[in-house]
């Protein structure tokens, strides 16, 4: 008898979770949006070759082709970013080297000027 009550309780818990999720989908407008899209697909006299693409397009998402194009663009931009970042690091190193060589030159000049003042 105890096992029966556990199963009933478990089933009631699952049903309560399903009902809560259904209410969540309904209150957030998901059920309405999906219903409209599925009705539009059903009413199409010429069914699209890709039902998934039709649904994505109607829900506002990019098509598969648009998605692939965007992924390729992201890849190209990442490569360009890496190239520019490497060039920036090279220029920063060059700038540091120039600063260091200028500082060394200034130090030598100050030393030489100091020596020549002492000579007079």
Automatic annotation (TrEMBL):
Cellular compartments annotated: Nucleus
Main location: nucleus
InterPro entries: AMY1 (IPR026060)
Coiled-coil stretches: none
Region span, Disordered: 98-120
Keywords: Nucleus
Signal recorded as keyword: no
Biased composition (Basic and acidic residues): 110-120
A GO MF term: transcription coactivator activity
Annotated PANTHER family: ASSOCIATE OF C-MYC AMY-1 (PTHR13168), C-MYC-BINDING PROTEIN (PTHR13168:SF0)
Annotated family: Belongs to the AMY1 family.
Protein name (database record): c-Myc-binding protein homolog
Source organism (scientific name): Coffea canephora (Robusta coffee)
């Amino acid at each position: 008898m105890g096992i029966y009550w556990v199963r009933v309780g478990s089933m009631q818990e699952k049903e309560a979770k399903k009902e809560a999720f259904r209410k969540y989908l309904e209150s957030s407008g998901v059920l309405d949006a999906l219903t409209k899209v599925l009705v539009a697909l059903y009413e199409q006299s010429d069914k699209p070759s890709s039902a998934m693409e039709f649904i994505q397009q109607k829900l506002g998402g990019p098509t598969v082709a648009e998605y692939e194009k965007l992924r390729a663009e992201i890849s190209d931009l990442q490569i360009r970013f890496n190239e520019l970042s490497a060039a920036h690091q090279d220029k920063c190193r060059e700038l540091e080297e120039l600063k260091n060589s200028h500082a060394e030159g200034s130090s030598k000049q100050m030393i030489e000027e100091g020596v020549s003042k002492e000579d007079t």
